[in-house]
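Notes to self after the Tuesday call (sharing in case useful).
The group wants a holo model before anyone commits to mutagenesis around the pocket. I volunteered. Ligand is coenzyme A. Logging inputs and output together so the record is complete.
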Amino acid sequence: MAEFRHETDRLVLRDWREEDWEPFFEGTNTPAVMQWLGGLLDDERKSDVRARLERYQSDFGHTFWVVERKEDGAILGFCGLKRCTDENGPFGEMEAGWRLREDAWGKGYAKEAARAAIDIGFTKFGADPIIALTVEGNAASWGLMVRLGMERRRDLDFEDALWSHGYGPVIVHAITREQWDRQGA
Ligand SMILES: CC(C)(COP(=O)(O)OP(=O)(O)OC[C@H]1O[C@@H](n2cnc3c(N)ncnc32)[C@H](O)[C@@H]1OP(=O)(O)O)[C@@H](O)C(=O)NCCC(=O)NCCS
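Result:
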């Protein structure tokens, strides 16, 4: 399959390459970035993250792509699309997700990447709706969902065996293609 690559004004979203993993973990495996994601990753959990993202790519044909800054080629993190794989949750729905290194926060990069990913989800992969998952405490993540025009779907919130133990239920936001098109995103 051809390499996935999508450019926005300041960023490139693309398939992972071997050399991306080291800078990705170096930038994002910090206490602040991992605060709501189970804390710092040891080598075993790093391998799990990599294996999961590679599995999404082979299972779904898309994943949380690597996010590279055009200006300097820096690996800022990931943003992209998977299918919800949690059987307690909205299983099978197209899910947008993001994780950027701390020095790339507050610059609108996450929103720029997420808008591109959601647009690709609707137009290239025919998704409808697109959901996003987080926990109540992760205000940066659900704040982004709100800025993207996503709607809080309390009816879809769920308990997750892994996450709900420490952080409370997984909370769901969603946007339909009609809502997305209407806001002219
Ligand atoms: C969630 C996460 C990706 C959000 O990143 P972010 O940088 O806060 O999100 P945005 O790209 O939307 O940037 C937002 C801020 O940048 C500001 N900004 C600065 N320059 C900007 C520009 N040129 N364009 C747009 N926004 C800009 C905006 O005003 C906004 O601040 P505000 O919310 O106070 O108004 C980030 O916090 C993260 O990686 N967290 C750790 C990993 C994680 O928890 N992931 C989610 C798991 S569910």
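Two things stood out.
Residues 43-60 form the longest helix (18 residues).
The longest strand covers residues 75-83.
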